[in-house]
Amino acid sequence: MTPSADSPVPAPRRTRVRQVIEQLRARIADGDWPLGSKIPTEPQLVDAFGVGRNTIREAVRALVHAGVLECRQGSGTYVVSTDELSGAVGRRVADAQATEVVEVRRAFEVEGARLAALRRTPEDLAALDRALAVREAAWRAGRVADFVSADVALHTTIMAAAHNTMLAELYASVGAAMQITLTDSVAVGGELTPDRYVDHGRLVEAIRAGDPIRAAREAGAFLEAPDGA
């Protein structure tokens, strides 16, 4: 039967799939489905988005391929990355040599610290003080996972103080992937040891002082490659 002039014309299938992909991305980005959580079942997604099962399956498959979602047989589909870039970076970091990871971190963190020293605001400095305090408390308590998360949070706060949106977004993707590798660098046998401690107080003070040269030097000092490159 030919639709009447007043009948809504259904969107083409590929368009519907793209729309669902964007809706799924938005739910993940907004924190409705946090990292590590299981997304709703296929029937629930069908009801939520008002589309057919095949459309849902294609959209989920696309995000699985992009590294954002992971299907676990007999368990469900889980969020393993917040966006496609993080997923791609995560796979690349997992395959990289340790020296390459250090060099990439240094490239981001040295420039981020330099810019933060030039552009930090009073609000940025307050956020840095809070992040540093949380990091130090986690170290004193000997909580490896908490310390690694706090260390990443401090460096992410420095990137935010650099006030370069692209730099902050790229570092967020790299930083999330590097969180796993950081555990190996700060802990021995699952425990924090004094010889692995790195003082970040001088880095924060250099940013507070508005000294880009010193801030860059402090950021790079604990990210030297093994060969001293």
What best-fitting shape do the alpha-carbon axes yield? elongated
CATH class membership of the largest domain: Mainly Alpha
The CATH H-level superfamily of the largest domain is: GntR ligand-binding domain-like
Radius of gyration: 22 Å
At the fold tier of CATH, the topology name of the largest domain is Four Helix Bundle (Hemerythrin (Met), subunit A)
**SS-based structural class?**
mainly alpha
Along the chain, the helix and strand elements come as HHHEEHHHHHEEHH
Largest sheet: 2 strands, antiparallel
Helix content: 55-70%
Protein name: FadR/GntR family transcriptional regulator
Keywords: DNA-binding, Transcription, Transcription regulation
Describe the overall structure.
The chain is mainly α. The chain folds into two domains: 70 residues, Winged helix-like DNA-binding domain superfamily/Winged helix DNA-binding domain (Arc Repressor Mutant, subunit A); 136 residues, Four Helix Bundle (Hemerythrin (Met), subunit A) (Up-down Bundle). It has a two-stranded antiparallel sheet. A hairpin with a 3-residue loop joins strand 1 and strand 2.
What can be said about this structure in brief?
With 229 residues, the protein is mainly alpha-helical. It has helices at residues 13-29, 42-49, 53-65, 84-95, 98-119, 122-141, 144-161, 165-186, 201-208, 212-221; strands spanning 69-72, 76-79, 187-188, 191-192. Strand 3 and strand 4 form a beta hairpin.
